[in-house]
Automatic annotation (TrEMBL):
Gene3D superfamilies: GntR ligand-binding domain-like, Winged helix-like DNA-binding domain superfamily/Winged helix DNA-binding domain. It comes from Paraburkholderia metrosideri. Residues 20-86 form the HTH gntR-type domain. Keywords: DNA-binding, Transcription, Transcription regulation. InterPro entries: GntR_C, TF_FadR/GntR_C, Tscrpt_reg_HTH_GntR, WH-like_DNA-bd_sf, WH_DNA-bd_sf. This is HTH gntR-type domain-containing protein.
C-alpha cells in the first residue's frame, strides 16, 4: 500500500472582524464619562444599571468594566466599581511620567500630522478660547480632551499613545477640579496656543519645548492650588 507523504497544513483560524462590539461601545462610553468627570469619586458604577441603559445583558458590561479596572480607571468592590483615590504622591509620579513621555511623543507627530488634524487642533484651540472667555468649564474640558486626542492620534507608536492617554485619564478627576480656576484655564489656553503654533510649523524641537513648558506650568499651578495658593498670583 503506497504511503501518502502529503501533509495537511492547517491554517490558523481567522477571527471575524467586527467594526465595534457592544463591549467596546460600553467601554468607550464609560471611559468618556470618566474623562469628562461625569462619574464622581463617591459614585458607584453598577453593571446592572449600565445593562439597563444599553438594553443588554450584564456580560458585555462586566467585560467592559473589568477592562477599565485592569487599566486602572476603576476599582472593583463587593458593591460595584468605584473611581480610585488619587494621592498627592500619585500626582507627582503621573506628572513625572508624562514629562518623560509627552514632549517626545508630540514631537514625533510633527512629520505625520495631516492637514485635517491641524484643522482639528485649530478648532479645539478656538473652542478653548471661547470657553475661557465665557468661563465655561465643561466646554474647556471638551476642548482640552479634543486637542490632546487629535495630536495623540498622529503618534505612530500605538503603545506609547495608549500609555500617555491612560496616565492623563488617571489624573482627570483631580484636574477637573482645578479647571474651575481662571488662572488654570489661562494656562491651558496659552499652552494650547504655543503647541498649535509649533505644530503648524511642523517643528519637532519647538513642539517638545512647548509641551514641556505647558506641563511644567500645569504641574506648578496644580500644586500651588493644592497648597491654598495660585502660581500666577
Amino acid at each position: 500500500m503506497a504511503q501518502n507523504d502529503d501533509k495537511v497544513v492547517k491554517l490558523p483560524r481567522r477571527t471575524t472582524l467586527k467594526p465595534t462590539t457592544l463591549t467596546e461601545t460600553i467601554y468607550q462610553e464609560v471611559r468618556g464619562r470618566l474623562q469628562r468627570g461625569e462619574i464622581g469619586a463617591d459614585q458607584r458604577v453598577l453593571d446592572y444599571e449600565i445593562a439597563e441603559e444599553f438594553d443588554c445583558t450584564r456580560m458585555p458590561v462586566r467585560q467592559a468594566l473589568l477592562r477599565l479596572a485592569n487599566e486602572g480607571y476603576l476599582i472593583g468592590t463587593t458593591r460595584g466599581f468605584v473611581v480610585p483615590t488619587i494621592t498627592t504622591e500619585d500626582i507627582h509620579e503621573i506628572f513625572e511620567i508624562r514629562r518623560l513621555l509627552e514632549p517626545a511623543a508630540a514631537a514625533s507627530a510633527a512629520a505625520v500630522l495631516t492637514s485635517a488634524q491641524e484643522s482639528e487642533l485649530k478648532k479645539a484651540y478656538q473652542q478653548a478660547r471661547k470657553a475661557y472667555e465665557k468661563r465655561d468649564v465643561e466646554q474647556m474640558i471638551a476642548a482640552n480632551i479634543e486637542f490632546r486626542s487629535t495630536w495623540l492620534a498622529a503618534v505612530q507608536n500605538s503603545r506609547l499613545r495608549s500609555t500617555i492617554m491612560r496616565f492623563v485619564d488617571h489624573a482627570q478627576q483631580i484636574r477637573l477640579g482645578t479647571l474651575t480656576n481662571p488662572n488654570t484655564q489661562k494656562i491651558v489656553v496659552d499652552g494650547m496656543r504655543s503647541l498649535l503654533e509649533a505644530f503648524v510649523e511642523r517643528d519637532p524641537k519647538l513642539i517638545k519645548v512647548a509641551m514641556l513648558e505647558f506641563m511644567l506650568n500645569a504641574e506648578q499651578q496644580y500644586f500651588a492650588l493644592l497648597n491654598g495658593g495660585d502660581a500666577r498670583d
